[in-house]
Amino acid sequence: MSQSNVLKENLAESARVVAERIGGRAPEVGMILGSGLGPLAEQIEDAVYVPFGEVPHMKTSTATSHVGRFVCGNLGGKCVLAMQGRLHGYEGNTAQEVAYPVWLMHGLGIGTLVTTNAAGAINEGYRVGDFCVMEDHINFTGRNPVAGLEPDGIAFRFFSMLDAYDPALRRLALQVADELGIRVQQGVYLGLLGPSFETPAEIRAFRSWGADTVAMSVCEEVIAARHVGMRVLGMSLVSNMACGIEGASPTDEEVLDVARDREADFARLVTGIVERL
């Protein structure tokens, strides 16, 4: 049996289990809550929880602050399925294992993905605590979740990444932020494998390429989402200045501290966006 057909069968089994656990609900929006941003899940009403470890064929989170469960319920008047925590390549997961829950969401009928993370600012015009809407990305992980898949089974192997981050969703996010008085940027995100933070020399190179923010997630998820035709909105919380900028030397503790400080505005922003989807 081909690799793609095995993956298709695994995804179907995973989707059946999750659908049973969420009681037949039909989530419209999928969400991935990144480092320090998981508390938004506590605002999901009438919530049902499904730990990643209880979903067949799916890995679980090991990163700090990543709870590692699906949360299904109501947010902003919509039924959402949120990942409270994500899977990273630096945890030892393959690109397909990182992408697996996105394909799973698609299998449950979800057509829109909101993916979030904490990121370092390469653009010196950004401030710690800003939010940044992703307009495009540079995948510097060296990996692609679709590589190795045969065309049949999931979706066609070759697909465009033009407007990978949906322009209408980006405009909506900027509009909601403006109405709420929340400072937001729009820029190009660069994704790395991690877990080490970037060197100052790397940051200088990334800046010359046009990258505005950098972190260790998102790209593989977005590639998987576009592979199956999902609309994507990507947003980062600027949790630190990138290494070497303004003397910065990022730490995981700094990232989580900033996320805690911006938790309320993050919840307001995401909920406001979901309300209008």
TrEMBL record:
The keyword Transferase applies. Gene3D superfamilies: Nucleoside phosphorylase domain (3.40.50.1580). Pathway: Purine metabolism; purine nucleoside salvage. Pfam families: PNP_UDP_1. The keyword Membrane does not apply. It comes from the Bacteria. NCBIfam families: PNPH-PUNA-XAPA, PRK08202.1. The purine nucleoside phosphorylases catalyze the phosphorolytic breakdown of the N-glycosidic bond in the beta-(deoxy)ribonucleoside molecules, with the formation of the corresponding free purine bases and pentose-1-phosphate. Cleaves guanosine, inosine, 2'-deoxyguanosine and 2'-deoxyinosine. This is Purine nucleoside phosphorylase.
